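Please produce the structure of this protein holding glutathione.
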Amino acid sequence: MGLLVEGKWQSDAGKWADSKGRMQRPDSILRNWITPDGSPGPTGRGGFKAEAGRYHLYIARACPWAHRAAIFRELKGLQDMIGLSVTHWLMLENGWTFDPAPGVVPDTVNDARYLYELYAKSEPGYSGRVTVPVLWDKKTSRIVSNESADIIRMLNNAFDGIGATPGDYYPEALRAEIDAVNKRVYDTLNNGVYKAGFAGSQEAYDEAVVPVFETLDWLEEKLSRAEYLVGNRLTEADWRLFTTLLRFDPVYHTHFKCNLKRLVDYPALWRYTRRLYQHPAVRPTMNFDHIKGHYFQSHRWINPTGIVPKGPIVDFDVPVDWTA
Ligand SMILES: N[C@@H](CCC(=O)N[C@@H](CS)C(=O)NCC(=O)O)C(=O)O
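Below is the modeled complex.
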């Protein structure tokens, strides 16, 4: 772990829990938007016009938030327009690094060894966490955004006029419903598993783990009646849920102690997760070695030996049978 304090990396700072042992995830603070004409988006400054070759995405394959961004880059066919770097799976005293290893894609834009170098270069004097994903502007050498929820919305439509693959995952008519589903899924599931896993007290864990399963029960019920979460079509709400579901049995069930049930115990959710997994946009974004390696080897206060369990064997390629 660690964070930047006035532009200097402090490797022992940045503990997650408050005095009651509850994990606190701070809001991202770099929140500008790429728009078709460079006008400002809902937050931040303008000046970030959608242009092929101008932007670069930094991700970790392990990270569910970064995974959303990687999936949208594929979904929208932006691989040639937006470059990609992939960190090492380990996040230890230097935070995310580009140390060479299988699956790491080095930083050819800034030649950084550590992700925090990008934050320090873009925002001199920056204090705060150094997180993935990061969307980088090569033209101004600045971070456009480090908030995945915003990044997927930019990728969803900012590049449509310059050749992105058609497809709107945040359609106007469904926005209110998508936002409502996102809110519950974020609080109790995407972030809920982290609140359980990073709890520093029994009380904080108990408080977090119950809503995780209440929400899974709620989703199971929804998805036993509908193919997708909102409006009977694939939307960002599905993709935001997917990256957490994918990690549930391999990681969160064991490592974050979210073990009242497994994903595979929920027939509709299990079918839905496999269906999304088998979408062509997902395959190029997958790396289970990075996912498992990251969690089990980086969070040494939870798993001091750093041993990565062999199982469970979860076969996301099992064909989806809609008649069952
Ligand atoms: N709200 C952010 C959260 C991103 C985030 O917390 N990423 C984690 C990895 S899963 C990270 O980089 N953590 C490093 C740290 O907090 O020191 C988003 O959705 O983009």
